[in-house]
Amino acid sequence: MKIIQEKWAEIHQQPVISFTMINDNGMEVTCINYGCIITKIVTPDKNGNYENVVLGFEHFPPYITNTPYFGAVIGRVAGRIQNACFELDGKTYTLCKNENNNHLHGGVKGLHRVLWNAVAVENEGEVGVRFSYTSPDGEEGYPGTVQVQVTYMLNNQNELVISYNARSDKSTLLNLTNHTYFNLSGNIKRDILDHELKIKSDQFLELNEELIPTGIFLDVTDTPFDLRKGKKLKDGIMANHPQIEVVGQGYDHPFLLNAHHDEEIVLWDPGSGRTLTVETDEVGVVVYTGNQLQEGMDIYGVPSRKYLGICLEVQGLPDAIHHPHFPSWILRPEEIYSSVTKYRFGVK
């Protein structure tokens, strides 16, 4: 196993460093210290062809705006916060409104648009990168100075393990995720409509017209959201269902997971034979099928379009601060935020 480290670009007179982890099977994961962005994941198909299975950009400049959040760590709070404000311990905090009237994915800057400290890590049987960043009190409107550490580790089981750890000196909100878009066809040969997705989930969250949870958990039974036995994505995306239509004809919904670290999310592309199994200790996953990907961006030589990638954003439930019956995002000074998600790549 090895890790290759090189200067890729520069921003604010600081180097943007690229790290490529390579395991003994030839699988590669490349990431950068700007936003902890995963730029490439190279895995074999059923015929042994190694190809990239994520969306990203060939060069650094598009990542500076990166409106689709390709590959980035999202925080301090992933998802939307209604009306871009919240109350915590009797005090009201106002955040920036960066999506209509709401706050999305940590704000204009967020954790996805900062340079992180990064060091290569080499252990027996695994290599990786440990990122760290201190988000100052008041950044993007959030209280507390938060020390965040994100670690990416690649092992010889073709698993990418992402670990999140954080502490705050004041009570604050924290809900982190990774926003990688997967396309298992390899080198973006096809869109994701023929991918099959299986999720161990009996309930999903109803969304309103602004894509904010209403607070109602809906039963997946007899709906396009019943993925318990697996479903071809296009069968759900093309369905005539109000919740499919409200997000632009597709999925952009939080699912409540029934199981953890037990093959609870499985994505499969029959054409390439590639599989992705996601296991996590997070309570939910937001499934986003790229319904709002703008056309015309150059993604490794392929023009962007709807349904070119799927995000599996494992995280706490969106807008939880406004829904007391959702699992809490609140991080107290005496607590440690900790979360682990494993992405295992295979073929069948």
How would you sum up this structure, described in words?
InterPro entries: Ald1_epimerase_CS, Aldose_1-epimerase, Aldose_1/G6P_1-epimerase, Gal_mutarotase_sf_dom, Galactose_mutarotase-like, GH-type_carb-bd. One of its GO terms (cellular component) is cytoplasm. This is Aldose 1-epimerase. It catalyses: alpha-D-glucose = beta-D-glucose. The chain is mainly beta and 348 residues long. It has one domain (2-347): Beta-galactosidase, Chain A, domain 5 (Distorted Sandwich). The chain has three helices and 30 strands. The strands form eight sheets. The protein has a nine-stranded antiparallel sheet. A six-stranded antiparallel sheet has the order 17-28-25-22-19-20. The two termini are 24 Å apart.
Distance between the termini: 24 Å
Question: What is the helix content?
Answer: under 10%
Shape estimate: globular
Tell me, rounded to a whole number, the average pLDDT: 97
Number of separate structural domains: 1
**Structural class based on helices, strands and sheet pairing:** mainly beta
CATH class descriptor name? Mainly Beta
